[in-house]
Amino acid sequence: MKHRINEIYDRIRKAASSCNRETESIRIVAVTKTVPAERIREAFAEGISVIGESYIKEAREKYDLISGIPVSWHFIGHLQTNKAKYAVKMFDLIHSVDSIKLAEELDIQANKIGKIQKVLIQVNLGKEKTKSGINEEDAPDLINKMSCFKNLFVKGLMVIPPFYDDPERVRPYFSALRNLRDSLKSSVDPSLIKNIAMDELSMGMSGDFETAIEEGATLIRIGTAIFGERD
Ligand SMILES: *Cc1c(COP(=O)(O)O)cnc(C)c1O
């Protein structure tokens, strides 16, 4: 694992320098779905500081096992409204807000525990029926409504693009997410709206993170390249 992680750091440095970005502006979210607690500890020892879980049930099972390790927990899967209460307890950042209903429930649950919950808006840029996320044209309206939720802080956008082996075919989705982020950011007046920042772009996985970095990714979600193939 050490070797794999070091290789990823190298590739991030190269990708960042090829487009004149600071390596520090890119964070690895180590995707730990199906990965047991011992291996998460190992990854932490190699410098991994953010983990991404996709299922609430699995996250709850692991949470206590690794509560002693100071990693930041991110939620990257589809979140059902009735699981919002668990999500706000465990996760520093929820990447997958895709409806007002979910935002509303997260706001209520975050308020209950006195937390400002950081979130990203997931956008379904490929308009795939099987994937979660809001459609691009609905994003401005959702962002607008998010400004009312006192216990939510919108940090940016996330995308899971259609699957292609060739990263060049994924690139248009990454650049589209960046453009959408830029346009939403410019539509928000920071002197009036304090809970929408729009700086983060969660995009890129094991097969295409370099392309995502070239297109502005700040959070890259990497599973297989760190932990090997999942069962
Ligand atoms: C599983 C998963 C990943 C990691 O994919 P790899 O190809 O293993 O790097 C990234 N993002 C999301 C949302 C995932 O569910």
Describe this structure in words.
The chain is an alpha/beta fold and 231 residues long. It has a single domain, classed as Alanine racemase (TIM Barrel), CATH 3.20.20. Helices cover 40% and strands 19% of the residues. The chain contains nine helices and eight strands. The chain has an eight-stranded parallel β-sheet with strand order 7-6-5-4-3-2-1-8. Strand 2, helix 3 (56-63) and strand 3 (72-75) form a beta-alpha-beta unit. Helix 4 (84-90) packs across helix 5 (100-112). The longest helix is centred in the last third of the chain and has 21 residues, at 167-187. The protein is globular.
List keywords for this structure.
binds pyridoxal-5'-phosphate, single chain, alpha/beta, 231 residues
Backbone structural class: alpha/beta
What small-molecule ligands were found?
pyridoxal-5'-phosphate
Number of strands: 8
CATH homologous superfamily heading: Alanine racemase
CATH A-level architecture = Alpha-Beta Barrel
How would you sum up the global shape? globular
Oligomer: single chain
Secondary structure: elements and pairs:
Blueprint (H helix, E strand, L loop, with lengths): L1 H17 L8 E5 L5 H9 L4 E4 L2 H8 L8 E4 L8 H7 L2 E5 L2 H13 L4 E7 L15 H8 L5 E8 L7 H21 L8 E7 L6 H6 L4 E4 L1 H4 L4
Parallel strand pairs: 1-2, 1-8, 2-3, 3-4, 4-5, 5-6, 6-7
Helix pairs in contact: 4-5
The protein binds pyridoxal-5'-phosphate.
In short:
This protein is α/β, with parallel strands linked by helices. The protein is 40% helix and 19% strand. Residues 31, 33, 54, 76, 160, 205-207, 221-225 line the site of pyridoxal-5'-phosphate.
